[in-house]
Structure formats: C-alpha cells, structure tokens
Structure prediction request, 698 residues.
Amino acid sequence: MPVTKAQVLVPGLIVEDADPAADAEGLDRLAVWILERIAPVVAPDPPDGIVIDSTGADHLHGGENAMLDGVIGRLAMSGIVARAAIADTWGAAHALARYRTRSTIVAAPGHGPSIIAPLPLEALRLPSSVSAGLRTLGFGRIGDLLAQPRAPLALRFGPEIGRRIDQALGDLAEPIKAIRPPDLIEVRQAFAEPIGAAETIARYIAKLVGQLCERLEERGFGARRLDLICHRVDNRAQAIRVGLATPVRDVKRLTRLLCEKIDTIEPGFGIEVMTLAVTIAEPLERKQTHSSLVEASFPDVSDLVDTLANRVGERAVYRLAPVASDVPERSVCRIPAMAAETGASWPGHWPRPSRLLPQPEPVETMALLPDQPPVWFTWRGIRRRVKRADGPERVFGEWWKRDAELAAVRDYFRVEDDAGERYWLYRAGDGEHAATGSHRWFLHGVFG
Amino acid sequence: MRPELAIQSLRAQIERIEGTNRRAKAVLPFGIPELDTRLPGGGLALGALHEVAGGGNGAIDGAAAALFSAGVAARTRGRVLWCITRPDLFAPALAQAGLGADRVIYVEACDDKTVLSCMEEGLRHGGLGSVVGEVARLSMTASRRLQLAAEGTGSIGIALRRWRRQTEAADFGQPTAAMTRWRVSVMPSAALPVPGVGRPRWLVELIRARAGDSADFEMEACDDTGCLALPADLVHRPGAAEGWRRSASA
Prediction:
C-alpha cells in the first residue's frame, strides 16, 4: 500500500522511515532486560521476538504461568504490547506466541505435534516463497503438512521445510545462542572430558564461584543474581539461576546456594563447558558492624532468606507491612523479607482475629436492625447461639479507590458463642439505608 | 556409694546419652509460677521443638494455637520465621500478641514437606529467635530432625499442628520427638458487668512434657507482650471472687 493511500485512510497518520538497525538494537536491549529479570538463557529472535529458555528459572517467579503474566504485565506497563508462549521447543513456542490470540499460553510438557497442527503454515518460520508455494498446492495448516511424505516436498522446496518441521517437533535440536551483555562478569570452565557426577559438578561450582568472587572484588561488586549454565555434549544448555536479596560476595554462601540446585541439572551424556555469570551485580558497600556497646539489632538472616527464596520462590518469602486502610483485607501488604524495618504497626485498639478468611463467607443470621449483633448465626452448616458480642465497628468504603464504594459500609461485630468460640462477623450495610450494602451477614475471621 | 550419688551419676550418664548437655539448658519461662513449676527446667526449653494444636474447631483453624505460638515467639529474641501453607494468618492479630510486623518473616510453601524443610533450615541457621511451622502431619523422623536442628542452635521450634478435617486430628496422639506437646482450646471469656466480650480465655493443656507431668490450666490469652495470665478469680480463689461479685451486685 502506498503511503499516500494509507494517509487518506487514516487521518493524522504518523509516517516514519523503517530503521531495522535501530529495531535490532532495541530488541537486544529488551533481551538484556529480560536476561536480568527472567531467565539465564535469552536471545533476540529478529525481527519481532525474543526467545527465552526458562528451564531452571521459573521457580523464582512462582511457576510458569505467573512468570509469563509477570513479563507481559511489566512490558505492558512500559507500553509494549507483547504475547508470550511456553512450549517444549522453540519452534512450537514461536508459532503459539504469534498465531494464537491469547496473550499468554503455557503448553503442557510433552504436548506433541497436536498443539501446532491447527496453526497456519506461516507459523513454521518458512521463507515466504515456500509457504506461498505450499498454499498453491493446497496446504493450509501445519497439520496437513505433518502427514505428508517428506521426500517430494524436499525435492520441490528444498531441505528447509523438513528442518523447520523437525525443529518444531523437537526431533532436531535448536540451540539458543544466548545474548551476553559486554560488561557481564563471567567465568568459564571447559572440560577435557565431559563431567556428569553431582560431586564433580559441585567441586567445579566451588572453583568457579571462587574465581567469580575475585572478579567481583576487583570491581567492588556483589552478586544479586547468578546464572550457571552447563553446556552438554549434545549441544543443549542446562541452567541454574540463583537470586539474592542483598548483594553478596561470599564464596561459601554462593557455593551453597548453587549446590542446592545441582539435582535440577540433567547432565545427559556429560557437561563439557560450565559458565557462571553475574547477571545483576550491585555495589557492595562495607558496613560497620555493631560493637557490643551499641545495642545489637536482630542477627542478620539474609543468607537464610536467600536459601529459602531459592527453594520456594522469591515471592513466597515476605514480610507483612501495615497499610493505612480500615478495610481489613487491605490493611496488610507484602514487602520483601529484607526490606528496611519501618517500625510501623497497625492501630491496636480493636481486637483483630488471628485467622482472616480469604473470602468473607455468607452466614445466615437473625439480628435486630440497625445496630444489634446477631442472636444466632449458621456457618458451614452449624448453628451457633451468640452469647456475648462487641460492636459495631463501622468501616466505610474507600471511595477514593473505587467509585462503587462511595456509600458502602460494613459493621463488624466480635461475637462469642456458647462454647466460647469467637468470630468476626460483619453486615454489609449500615442497617438503615439500602444504598450502603446488601444487609447480608458475612463471617470474616476467627479469633483465638 | 551412697544412694544420692548413685542417682546423680546415673542422671549424668543419661544426660550424656541423650546429648542434651551439649549446651546449657536454657528455658523461656511463662512468668506464671503455676505453669512454670510444671515444666522441667522451669519454662519452655530453648533449643527444642514444641508442638501446639488447637482443640475442637481449633484443630482446623488453629486460631488460638497460632496466638499461643505467637506469644511464645514474641518473648524470644530475634526474628521469627513463620512457615505456612494457607495464607490466612492475619498479621495485625500477631502484632496484638506482641509479635511486631518487622520481626516476622513468612514463608509460604506449597506442602507440608517444604514447610518442614524450611523449618529445619531456619532452626539450623541460629540467627532466629523462633521458627513456627504450620503442618498437618509430623512424623517421628521429621520431628527428630527438627529437634536435632533446634538443639544445635538454641532457637525454639514450634510445630503448629493444623489439619484440613476434624477426623485427621487423631494424628495428634502419634509419638513425636517434640519436647512438649500443647493443646489450646477456646473457653468462654470472663463475664463483664457490661455487654461485651472480655479478655479471651483458653484451656491450655500440657499433654506431654519430656521428663515432666501433663497438666491443664485455664488461662487468659496473650496480652500485647505475649504473656499469658491466670484468670483473676483463680488467683484470688473462687470464694473471694464470688464474694466480690455479690458485694458488687448488692
């Protein structure tokens, strides 16, 4: 389409010259950004993609789904509309990300050819002349092509078509040439004989960490994220990623964190090259330690936090901090475990239940309106008579957060039944005006 | 050999076998003589594993047991690691039991096995005051590992037993290597002269204590420093309390 025609169709169209070099540079920058945050093996896939080997990295993000959602969300926040897919092979993931409408797709491991069969031929990364030729012959989808004998196709279109199919199905290895930023601190160990035993790997990890820490010390840096990549003899890479809450340059501690993950490495026929890189390095400041005269604060537990975070995921180790909100479920937020101590606490004049239900559960009650506690209530099929009660504690909706909460009111009661069990009930609404809530009762927490 | 000396040498021998004399036996007293005298050493042993469960409905929600554990953890020094599988713990309530927001590090694990391994890691570290883990199943082997890890560092380990169903709570009778075993059940609070709910009361049962007897106590729940208290009518004996009540109502 000529530019003039496009300008007629879309008023106010901005026209810029294509700049493939700048695009490639931008893609490289984005790949480095992803390398620092998401996974150890990342490469730009020009013209419009980035390929990520997420093996050994998803545990830090709380699983594959959470990882993809996180990536897409963070890209969306910086104004980039992207789609992502995880599949067993580069080819399949490439096809799923580009030819499916959903923004994130995670294919089940061992999905086989069925997942790409319904996609159009263009998804196979073939030259446009080949896919046009195949369309002329009547092929429309990848599934049509999979059932065909290869020899006639190869004779007519060349070997590329068979190679791409094999790559998408995983029959042909397709190594990812990982991007390495120029200032990356990296050490490498090549082996004359491929290694495979866990003890040997552990020994070389310790050796590499020692060298790496020397390099870090030269620059005055500490590691925040470490990547160990093991290149196997069959040209596949196995990666381990370790995250740290604070910059660390301690050989013993880093070795221990890496060695905990050795059992996730599959050595296959042997590892011939091991690379250890610091993907995120931060200046390591020397700190004065407390003398016995100064009142010591809590002992340092950052190494424990690192160990746990690498075992259960970075998001699963946290502290809870107060938020200035009267709505109970919004009064708590998660902060990183090693965040600075705030000293803040919740206002303590009203008792709070030790267990807060994830969702308030509706209960049947009988109560006098507008401000009496219920006489009895039925929760999870058990009817309880209320013997004593405190309340109401009125919580107003936060209209500055959501318009719908402009008039919303909750009246909280702390009730005790015959057996002494104490619960936190609330009524949605103030008991007088229908606009303030549904006037139904909910159980929100259990007191100890 | 005189009989006292023989008994002393036997005790020393047993201690050597048990391996408990590796570090001086330190305890965390509750500050209530009635409770502390029942515990060997005069308090909750530091560097040991203790089991806490809720009674009745508390076996499932573990609300009172969590506050009891928070009270113990609040009185230790240092940070507290709290390993959970279900994120329904409400931090403001822990702060009201004396365990401030800055002191607790939560670890949310997907299953009991991970909780146990995280607890062990925390107990072995040594920089923590106490480690609380909410688990359903606690085998002899797992509890032994935790106990050994705690012995090495002096942190208190608390296995907060919490089950999905009431029927699974029978598991609480199975033997474990824990130093003490507690059951905390809710009781009706003290009657106030005005409408309202008074300070919560618990029935704190010491079901098992190694080298000690079991006992049960009626206690008032943790205050904002994590200390339990004896109900006032028990301190002043029921007769006196009745008399006070009569004169107050007269």
In short: Confidence is low (pLDDT under 50) at residues 238-250 of chain B. Chain B has one domain: 22-189+196-249. The CA atoms of residues 189 and 196 of chain B lie 10 Å apart. The domain at 22-189+196-249 of chain B is CATH 3.40.50.300 (Rossmann fold).
